[in-house]
Design brief:
about 325 residues; Carbamate kinase; 10 helices
Length: about 325
């Protein structure tokens, strides 16, 4: 398709996969390996914004703060979201700039720490649901529970810490992001969904100790900068009906009506694919040409319609 403006959403698990020690060396290695599709998009002339998750990383930062709490004042979760957006942005920016130089693509990469506007009365702030950090062993689960920290069993025997996740409403720095993209720069922003904030009548912007879903924020940013495409890169090769069951079936194309029908049922379960489909549908409904959900290694093929799942409006070719 003709290059336009694209928002690429990259999961935090892509650079810190389950079952591997999340050392900084390993995370740099996975980051470098994940950026091939972005280099190809840049070479083809796409205007690119890269949004990344931080679930494993912000959970680790929280644990580090708690372990050192008797030595130095801990930082609140909202500040840690900004902190991970900074160092992960540095990691992605450096790795991508190097990859572009090797490929002979004359594009500049910049990281912008953005804030995500939320409703301070959002009921989701009272219900911890979003997993952060890595899987916990039984001893760690017991210690967290003893301190009143919420944990959840995601699948049999796999427990993770959970935190509130309010619905995003807007990206505060959207105009600046738009200016940078229009100038041809590749912008790494909304890291970890961006630190959530609310608008106080007297103090103006104030932080919230929570984590926002990065796919939903990517969809909102896409709407605000008039992006043509939202590309959500994950560790599953497509959206599936009955995922994880003997009757699972990949879905390659969905209209908005079909996506709504899928979301209204139980086919997607309660896993991480549901918010991805919700975000993709919201982006298309707000005027985006199409949204694509695909495995990281198949991103370009999915963008061409040869892999992944494409969601489009009724009048758009899938």
């Amino acid at each position: 398709m003709t290059p336009g403006t694209i928002v690429v959403a990259l999961g935090g698990n892509a650079v810190a996969p389950p079952g591997e020690r999340p050392t900084i060396a390993n995370q740099f290695r996975h980051t470098r390996a994940s950026l091939g599709p972005i280099v190809d998009l840049a070479r083809d002339g796409w205007r690119i914004t890269l949004v990344h998750g931080n679930g494993p990383q912000v959970g680790d930062e929280l644990a580090r703060n708690e372990l050192a709490a008797d030595q130095i004042e801990p930082l609140p979760l909202g500040v840690l979201v900004a902190a991970t957006a900074g160092w992960m942005g540095y990691m992605i920016q450096q790795s991508l700039q190097n990859a572009l130089a090797r490929a002979g693509v004359a594009r500049q990469v910049v990281t912008l720490i953005s804030q995500t506007l939320c409703d301070p009365q959002d009921p989701n702030l009272r219900i911890p649901t979003k997993p952060i950090g890595h899987a916990l062993d039984a001893a760690r689960v017991a210690r967290l529970r003893a301190r009143g920290v919420p944990v959840k069993e995601q699948e049999p025997g796999r427990w993770r810490r959970v935190t509130p996740s309010p619905r995003p409403m807007a990206v505060v720095e959207r105009d600046m992001i738009g200016h940078l993209i229009a100038a041809g720069h590749i912008v790494v922003t909304c890291g970890g969904g961006g630190p959530p904030v609310y608008d106080d009548p007297e103090l103006r912007l104030e932080g919230i100790d929570a984590v926002v879903d990065k796919d939903r924020v990517a969809a909102i940013l896409g709407r605000e900068i008039a992006a043509d495409v939202l590309l959500i890169l994950t560790n599953v090769d497509a959206v599936y009906r009955g995922y994880g069951t003997p009757r699972q079936q990949a879905i390659r194309r969905l209209t908005l009506a079909q996506a709504d029908h899928l979301l209204a049922g139980n086919e997607l379960g309660t896993g991480s694919m549901r918010p991805k489909v919700e975000a993709a549908s919201a982006f298309v409904r707000a005027g985006g040409r199409r949204a694509v959900i695909a495995q990281l290694s198949q991103g370009l093929a999915a963008l061409a319609g040869d892999a992944g799942t494409t969601i489009s409006g009724e009048g758009e070719p899938a």
